[in-house]
Amino acid sequence: MEDPSLNQQTSTVSRGSLRELANVAVPLVLSCGSLSIMHVVDRIFLTWWSTDAVAAALPAGLIQWTIMSIAMGKAMYVNTFVAQYEGANQRQRVSEAVWQGVYLALIWGGLLLLCAPFAGIFFHWIGHTAEVQALEAEYFSILCLGSGPALLSAVLSCFYTGRGQTMVVMWVNLTSVLVNMLLDYCLIFGAGPFPALGIRGAAIATVTANVSTLLLYLFIMLARHEARRYGLFNHWRFNRELFMRLIRYGFPNGLLYFIDIIGFTLFIVLVGRIGKIELAATTIAFNLNSLAFVPMMGVGTAVMTLVGKRIGEGRPQLAVTTTWKAFAVSATYMLLFAVIYVGFPELLLRPYAPEVMTEDFLKVKQAAIVLLRFAALFSFFDAMVVVFGSAIRGAGDTRFCMIYTLLTGWAIMVIPTFLVWRYADVGEKLFGSWVACTSYLGVLGIGYLIRFLAGHWKQMRVIEDHFPEPTAEDSEQPAEGALT
């Protein structure tokens, strides 16, 4: 049965209140924060292993994520369907939406395995140094093996986030992070009975963590009897109409992920062509910025969930209230990190220092200090991008987000970065590239704010206006009120 303490807690929370936002967002922030720490630790371990390894990890990881991003964006958009169906108290459709996401994840996960054999050719074409190329190809090939489990885990997580049960997601991710960090240390450096595999060990640890995440979700669903209560095993059949609606709204969301990530991937690739020092400094700066930005993704998922539920309930004005409260909290949080980036860069960079200081690392450190000032500058706009972008996508406004991100990403960041790399003096290339990146985030955040204020999203929804009559199987399911 459902945990009665959960129902009691959620029933006393006022819709649209800061407490409701906190109940949904805080576990997701902690969950995303743990993932951020995991990536930071991963990069620190690789920095200790070699400069080439840490220089290879970010571009290879970004490219693998770029290839997976369209599928991941569609898989994660199951959250909006679950939230709106939950708001409309349609539990059968919640289950059907999850299953359509599972089918999508299985198809794309299989296709992504085909990318691994071409890693060497692809990274040779990118043109980084030969040593970095070999490590990039190795890291990328292994990560591709974990694409399927990662996509399936994302879909199953939406079953919980869309219903506001974010504590489950938090504990699953915390467990996965611990598995990854432990295996990272053992497999990179060869602790105990494990061989020292360097960057290959880091990739194996990530794939193992993805598989453990999937198994944990399956175990929890069965142990808590949620599969029975929501009729998950009764509504497993392929639903062409719902699947196509998931594609209709989820595909622009996936393209949004793809466009955004490929823009930053091309940015990293172009910076890597400037030199190994510049690439390592950029890797570290983005890695440290993830300490602030990645937890913000938890707030974004919470906003998307609550906006979706309010749309399903037919109360969009409450969604407006929630969004502004989320932005106030997020902006304050990001500005705090901006102060840390500017005021304490030496402290932040200290864990990356190798035991024996090298001339290369001193150059990397000097460049990273400058780049952290850029991170401080665009952190406020990051809050706007995450909160207002998530709000309008939670209602179904995915097409605008896709088109606007495409236009601004290429016009303001990718093309100017290419021109800087191609024509600027050597000493100005890194600085000019980061000016383009910062400008892009500023324009993107302001554009999402304007779209949110326009209010078109209030009339949108991804679910049907009318629902089919419940079947005999559905009528046998115990009644359960929607969580708030």
TrEMBL record:
InterPro entries recorded: MATE_fam, MATE_MdtK, MdtK-like
Gene Ontology CC: plasma membrane
Main location (coarse class): membrane
Compartments in which it is found: Cell membrane
GO biological process: monoatomic ion transport
Highest taxon of source: Bacteria
GO molecular function, one term: antiporter activity
Keywords, ordered alphabetically: Antiport, Cell membrane, Ion transport, Membrane, Transmembrane, Transmembrane helix, Transport
Topology with respect to the bilayer: Multi-pass membrane protein
Entry's transmembrane regions: 21-41, 101-127, 139-161, 168-191, 197-220, 254-272, 284-306, 326-344, 364-388, 400-424, 430-450
CDD domains: MATE_like_7
Signal peptide region: none
PANTHER family for the chain: FMN_FAD EXPORTER YEEO-RELATED, MULTIDRUG RESISTANCE PROTEIN NORM-RELATED
Matching NCBIfam families: matE (TIGR00797)
Stated name of the protein: Multidrug-efflux transporter
Organism from which the protein derives: Gimesia panareensis
